[in-house]
Amino acid sequence: MKLEPFQIRVPTAVLDDLHHRLRHTRFTSGLRDSGWDFGTSPLYLRELVTYWLESYDWRAREAVLNQLPQFTADIGGRIHFVHQHGEQSKGRALLLLHGWPDSFFRYHKVIPLLAAPGHHDADPGDAFDIVVPSLPGFGFTDQVPPAPHQPTRQSAERLWRLMTEGLGYKRFAVAGGDGGSPLAQIMAIDHPESVVGIHLTDLGWHVGNVDPSTLSKAEQQYLAAGKKNFMTDMGYAAVQSTKPQSLAPGLNDSPAGLAAWIIDRFHSWCDGEGDVERSFTKDELLTNIMIYWVTQTIGSSIATYRGETVSPSLTTADHVKLPVGLALFPKDAGGVPPRSFAERTLNVQRWTEMPRGSHFAALEEPVLFANDVRAFFSGLVAEARWEGGNDGKSAV
Q: Checking DSSP bridges between strand 70-74 and strand 3-6, what pairing results, if any?
């Protein structure tokens, strides 16, 4: 399997078209300022669009992203990924998996912390080779139509092939959040011979589908809080799980519409006490949005929601037997679950309740995230047989 070096090069015509659309944004009228209570604040959206048009510099951000060593591989369609070699990794590899509505950009702050810990006040011997793919249907990975049966499991299989066939890692670690959590769990279940262990920042969407009568009082309260949160803050999931093709054309055609849809999630899922820019800068928010815009992958990225509703890849009957580390951030959607609830589907070996942070942990609290990942997997190094990859060199 041949790997090809990759650099992000967005055509100038795409940027010119974006600026034209931003200049001619038709903002909604007749809405009183209700803050964020009804979704993205109209005032903040105007502010963000103005900044996007007048101050945001994609070429500068593109240049920063291109400092990361990026490649593509053809595995049932082109997969884009970052492959950063660790300074003293000894072939130990870590696959980092994002979800929606973020991108491989979620992990750009933690890549140096995990690949070169000796430069960041940590043990140099805890270094990893870092692999960060754009998930199938996201960003610079090809928009292969979602599989009709268990689409997340099909994506997990493609990513496993990337690690084993493409990069030559016989054994590797996996960490994920949001959609990356079920992907990591599926890889651990389907390929325990390859996966050393998994590190998660949430339990995955499937755990709520459980008979409440089998739960303890604390577990019932956690599940009830999650369902209440779904009714008040998860309308996006209801739409994407039922009618994604009705939503996607508007988001793909309007940069302001795309920004409103995505920023609503970043605002709701951050630890900013109502101010999204306490957690993320405008440049960070817009860079993530730009990855969706320039690749036109908003439609393919949300299609999996419908696919998983029709044909789930995971159920509460599935159990991860490999070691699992959980780093739980207090302001994440639904809050911190009881450990007993997590242990219904996971072999929890490390449990960390973080002092701050929320859903996009690696982007919002990179040091806390990286420290916990290193601590969990360093405990597995002595007992697990790690076999190195080909360093991505012979295949390029």
A: antiparallel
Active site residue 178: yes
Contact between 156 and 126 under an 8 Å Cβ cutoff? The reply is no
pLDDT at 143: 81
Residue 16 catalytic?
no
- Which listed residue (80, 305, 318, 332) is catalytic? 305
- pTM, rounded to two decimals: 0.96
- Residues near 338 by Cβ (< 8 Å), separated by ≥ 6? 216, 218, 219, 222
Measured between alpha carbons, how far is residue 150 from residues 144, 166, 304, 312 in Å?
A: 14, 23, 9, 5
Segment (H or E) for 6? strand 3-6
Q: How confident is the model at residue 195 (pLDDT cuts 50, 70, 90)?
A: very high
8 A C-beta contact, residue 108 and residue 68: yes
Q: How far is CA 45 from CA 23, 171, 250, 255, 259, in A?
A: 14, 45, 16, 11, 8
Q: Which helix (H) or strand (E) holds 292?
A: helix 282-295
Please, what CATH class does the domain formed by 3-20+35-381 belong to?
alpha beta
pLDDT in tens, 201-221: 999 988 988 888 889 999 999
Q: Which is catalytic among the residues 178, 202, 264, 318?
A: 178
Which pair of structure tokens corresponds to residue 186?
């599926």
Q: How many separate helices (H) and strands (E) can be counted in the chain?
A: 15, 9
Q: Quick one: tokens of 83?
A: 């492959």
User: What pLDDT is recorded for position 225?
Assistant: 87
